[in-house]
Amino acid sequence: MEESVQNLFRYLPDEILSCIVSFLPNEYALETSLISTRWRDLWNQVLVKHGTIEDITSVIAEFLANFDELDPLKRPHKLQFHFADDNALFAAIATNNKLLLDFSCGKKKIERKYELQFKLNKQHFTYHSAFLVKSLYLKSLSYLTSEIASSIVSNLDHLENLMITDCCGLQSLFIESESKLRRLTILDCLQLKSLHLRTSKLKSFRYRGLLPRIWPESHFNLCHAILDFRQGLSCRDLSAQDFDEILLTIKNSEVLTLCEWTFEVCSQ
């Protein structure tokens, strides 16, 4: 009898399996990927699209808008978007309202001259869906894709947690999220020289890397802050006065961790 039940599921079409998963709570739905290779393949389906770099924001918006949280297998929750001479973006929707955007999939570096041809139209990002992104993970942003990321972040009205990691080539970053952003983490973006924050409700701020110019527009009351600048300065002309704004921001933190370069800059 047990074998016949297994055979029954084995030969059911994907649409029926997807319907079965739709009746499960989110925390249990993903566990079906452990049943067999067949179930795992359903979860690992990747939507592949091609276009230009100007299309990224609208493609991500469409990807999110079409995702059905109540029926997670109805459409793939993974996307690979190819653009600009074999460069690619990998996007994945995970449980607990998480979205990953990884720009490290490209085979070739984007030529600097392409930057002159690119103008981002922020109106391209029109996102309307029952799936609300609360945590966003950005990996391997460049000087070019940073503006795309800023547009996406500013349009995620329910975003609470933002993590940015391993962004070689990223020189400046503007983060605007006045609604619900509570936690911001930036790790190992070693060419970042300017960080502009328009985020008045932050409670946690963690930064590790070279010390950039940090410009917070609001002096929010942090619960937890970690500033790790042990690798040195990103700009040789950085002075103690350039650090005044961030000092005003972190001075009331309940838990504050500062590493050696913070003190050395302030004492110059």
Overview of this structure, please?
25% of the residues lie in helices and 25% in strands. By secondary structure, the chain is α/β, with parallel strands linked by helices. It folds into two domains: 1-44, no CATH class; 48-266. It has helices spanning 2-11, 14-22, 26-29, 37-43, 56-66, 145-155, 244-250, 260-266; strands at 46-50, 78-83, 87-94, 98-102, 135-139, 161-165, 172-176, 183-187, 194-198, 204-208, 213-216, 224-228, 255-258. It is built from eight helices and 13 strands. Mean pLDDT is 79; it is low at 110-123.
Secondary-structure blueprint of this entry?
Layout: H1 2-11, H2 14-22, H3 26-29, H4 37-43, E1 46-50, H5 56-66, E2 78-83, E3 87-94, E4 98-102, E5 135-139, H6 145-155, E6 161-165, E7 172-176, E8 183-187, E9 194-198, E10 204-208, E11 213-216, E12 224-228, H7 244-250, E13 255-258, H8 260-266
Parallel strand pairs: 1-2, 4-5, 5-6, 6-8, 7-9, 8-10, 9-11, 10-12, 12-13
Antiparallel strand pairs: 2-3, 3-4
Helix pairs in contact: 5-6
